[in-house]
Amino acid sequence: MSLETIRRVRDLRERVALWRREGLRVGLVPTMGALHAGHLSLVEKALSLSDRVVATIFVNPRQFGPAEDLAAYPRREADDAALLDAAGAHLLFAPPVDEVYPEGFATTVTVTGVSEGLCGAVRPGHFAGVATVVTKLLLQSLPDVAVFGEKDWQQLQVIRRLVRDLDIPVTVEGAPTLREPDGLAMSSRNAYLGPEDRARAPRLYAILSQVASDLAAGADVATRTAWAVAELEKAGFGPVDYVEARDAETLAPVGERVTRPARLLAAARLGRARLIDNVGIAL
Ligand code: PAF
Q: Whose CA is nearest to atom 5 of ligand 1?
């Protein structure tokens, strides 16, 4: 394997600085590991936009609530490194927790507006944890471009906002959600689904797709999103945290009908997994 794994910020900075001196463009793909084809598509996109790609694996404790799955979150760094190597990534940055949050760490990056509501309402502190670690990873590596998946649509808007607000000199690129053949969005947390729930899971995307096309055709937002919640519950999901149509960028509510580019977003528990997904509402 030619992919090298580094664990210290100083080594990351050194390596990226060397590439920059050689005039190479650097791409960053932050992940929490347990990689699947969706992550590898982010690497592929980063490779298409830069000469050198740094992938990061860090299961960020600050974005998990006290009752969430931090301890159970799948960790398989050796397998992930082999996948990244095969995908063409050039460097893996996989720091220990105390490299990212040393003794005395006291800073939190909070993004108002886009972080509020949707997953922000159900997972207090989650987006502050994401914003803090992503800000650190961007400042540690100073890439030209950083690639994030559109499956975490709200996260992507939070990151776009913080990069703009803090003048971080990086281009943020979103990459489309990769799906299983039956439509289920790829996610490391799909591993939590037992066989029965796995068979039910594709209903989430099917229902969202149906409602998105109804809303694009002018249907009433409240009626159709209430229908989606009821259908998800009928399919065995629950609790359904939300099904909401929002402005695609600001995530502001869209009102009674969709009249500008929008996104339909949902989160719902299914057995041991909490699934999120979203689709565009194309007018
Ligand atoms: O999307 C993820 O995997 C994480 O939220 C991220 C962006 C790597 C930050 O920990």
A: 130
